[in-house]
Design brief:
Blueprint (H helix, E strand, L loop, with lengths): L7 E2 L8 E2 L11 E4 L1 H12 L4 H8 L3 H21 L2 E4 L4 E2 L2 E6 L5 E5 L15 E3 L6 H4 L7
Parallel strand pairs: 1-5, 3-4
Antiparallel strand pairs: 2-4, 6-7, 6-8
Protein name: UPF0251 protein SAMN02745207_00053
Keywords: DNA-binding
GO molecular function, one term: DNA binding
């Protein structure tokens, strides 16, 4: 069984998602695609000035995963700047809505992404799950609340 995707938490949506050099025509331009979580990694490290551990914690990933994400992001941006390519910000494995859940039937604790995951326990498939940080069904309450 393949390892499930670990969603990267992103706190800021980009205001603009496409950048091109002023001296290039859009129809002839090659693009570099920067993932949303790569942009978030650069924002946390370079603008917020957080250390690697703090960045990884905010994105809900390991420090090594954060390091891999930011290295990829910086390489893509550098290639675009040096080679005169456009930068398109799109895609990735990210979410704005992650909560830690607990199954009432088997006591399994897991992270759930509201935008993409089914509302059931991945261990026993029960729909009797609760947010581990709040009382009540997460699918009704946590979408509107931020658990940090």
């Amino acid at each position: 069984m393949p390892r499930p995707i670990k969603w990267r938490r992103v706190q800021v949506k980009p205001k603009s998602t496409y950048f091109i050099p002023v001296d290039k025509k859009n129809c002839l331009l090659e693009n570099v695609t920067l993932k949303i979580e790569e942009l978030e990694a650069m924002r946390l490290k370079d603008i917020e000035k957080l250390n690697q551990e703090q960045c990884a914690e905010k994105m809900m990933v390991s420090r090594q995963t954060f390091q891999n994400i930011i290295e990829s992001a910086r390489k893509k941006v550098t290639i675009a700047l040096v080679e005169g390519k456009g930068i398109k910000i799109d895609g990735g494995n990210f979410t704005y809505n992650i909560c830690s859940m607990k199954c009432l039937d088997c006591d399994h604790v897991f992270d759930m992404n509201y935008e993409r995951d089914e509302v059931e326990c991945p261990n026993c498939k029960s729909e009797e799950i609760r947010c581990s940080k709040k009382q009540g069904f997460c699918k009704k309450k946590c979408r509107k609340q931020n658990h940090e």
